[in-house]
Every structure is written in C-alpha cells, then in structure tokens.
Amino acid sequence: MSTIDDLPPLRTVIATHDIAAKKSLGQNFLLDLNLTAKIARMAGDLTKADVLEVGPGPGGLTRGLLAEGARRVLAVEKDARCLPALAEIAARYPGRLEVVNADALELDATSYLTPPIKICANLPYNVGTELLVRWLTPPVWPPVWESLTLMFQREVAQRIVAAPGSKTYGRLAILSQWRTDAGIVLDLPPEAFTPAPKVSSAVVHLKALPAPRFAADADVLNRVVAAAFNQRRKMLRSSLKGVAPDIEDRLTAAGIKPTERAEQISVEGFCALAREVARA
C-alpha cells in the first residue's frame, strides 16, 4: 500500500498500464514505496538539487524522490509502455518531473538539468556498469554531478568498493575510489523485486571528490589499469609490457615490484605508475 503520496500502489499501476517487466530491458521493479523513499533519502538533501533518474519504470523511485522533496526530477525511460504511468506522477507533482523517452546511453542529460545535480537510479542491469563508468570518466573533473546513488546487482556493488587483494578488486574499484568516496548503503534481497532476480542487489552511494585522490592523468591511468587487469593473473612486468618498453623501470620508479599482480596494487600505486608512464 502506498504511504508516501495519494497515487495508487505500484501493483495497481503496473496492472492498469499492463507494464510487465521485460528481461531484454534489464527490468526488475521495486514495488515497496517506503523502500524507494528510503533509497531517495540516501541521496541526501534533494530540496535544492535536480535529480537524474535512469530507468524509472512505473515510477516507484521517482515517487520517492519527489516525496522526499527533490527540486526537480529528470526521468529517462526507454520503455514507452511506462510513459502513461510516469505522466500521472508528473500531474501529481506539477512542474517537478520531466520525462524523456530515450536511451540513456545516447542522451546528453546535462542539457536538461540545472546544478547542483544528483543522480539516483535503480539502473537497468544491462546498462548499469557502462553508465557508471561514463559518469566516473568525464572530460573534466569535478563532474557536473555531486553524488551518485545507484542500485546494482550486489556483485557489481562489491566490485565498486573492493579493496586491493580481493577477487572483486579491479578497474571499477579504481575508477570509483580514485575520484569518489564510495560505500554500500543498503542491501536488497531478490524478493524485494518483481519479478525476483536470481541475485541480490545493493545500493551504492558515491560522492564526488573536488579533486582526484591522487595525481594522475586520467587517460594514462585508464590505459594502465585496463592493461593490468585484462591479464590479471600475469605479473605486471608481463601484463604491462605493451604500455611502455621500459615498464620494469617504470614499475620500480613507482615503488612497485615488477613481479606483483594487478590485484595487489592500491589506487595510490596505480596513480604513481601512471605518472611514471606519462613521464617516460
């Protein structure tokens, strides 16, 4: 039952508009409106921010964001079946919700938004990681957004917050932890969703740092990290030999043993190596 506004419960909305979740679109709907409002609160004070939401579906999180006082919400939805339900929410919150029927991977959402900007979304499983990487690698830093509050499969969430030495530590952890403070703020079991996925989910909150944690050229760092983890079982002197002809010297100058493997190197270590590679 809805307890955050006077619109119908989400199960009623889905039945009324015949919005069955599509696996091809990575859809799993979160129907508990108290839970969607809780996720919205994890994005912080929304009253003075524009919020970008990707994949709103029938609008559960959208309603949570608006009920929690978001100044304005831009909801980007690829599935045209959801538009009538979202239009009903827009009518309930006049002037505060704009819905764009588009693919988020092809849309420049910043042109619709006024800073400060927060991004809060139950991301479709099939595009979530790609969107996160794009948001973490803009041409300039700090980015246009202040924070990301995003739901992922728990496995992806663990990769974002992973520490060196763990099996889940990799490129996603380095990109996230280099430029943001990242943490898992909520775990969600499969049964919280309709249809229930086969895996658990988690909400991750990432707050943009005013400057990267350690100095490094973003392009060089991305190139070094990608090469290192593409062959993560190999020693760095082997996996990175295509990055620089004197890679063993660059590794040593960065304080890294050439015999170490990618998962053993901290974010600071990779940044030091990126500086050495750029200098060379």
Spell out the key features of this protein:
alpha/beta, 9 strands, single chain, 280 residues, seven-stranded mixed beta sheet, 19% strand, Helicase, Ruva Protein, domain 3, Rossmann fold
The total of helices stands at 11
Kindly state the number of beta strands. 9
**Beta-strand proportion:** 15-25%
* SSE order, one letter for each helix or strand: HEHEHEHEEHEHHEEEHHHH
Question: Between the first and last Cα atoms, what is the distance in angstroms?
Answer: 62 Å
Tell me the helix content.
25-40%
Instruction: Tell me the overall shape.
Output: elongated
Count of spatially separate domains:
2
Structural class assignment: alpha/beta
In the sheet with the most strands, the strands line up as 4-3-2-5-6-9-7
The CATH top-level class label of the largest domain: Alpha Beta
The CATH level-2 architecture of the largest domain is identified as: 3-Layer(aba) Sandwich
For the report, how would you describe the main beta sheet?
7 strands, mixed
Low-pLDDT windows of residues: none
Mean pLDDT: 95
- Per the CATH scheme, the topology name of the largest domain is Rossmann fold
Radius of gyration: 21 Å
CATH superfamily of the largest domain: Vaccinia Virus protein VP39
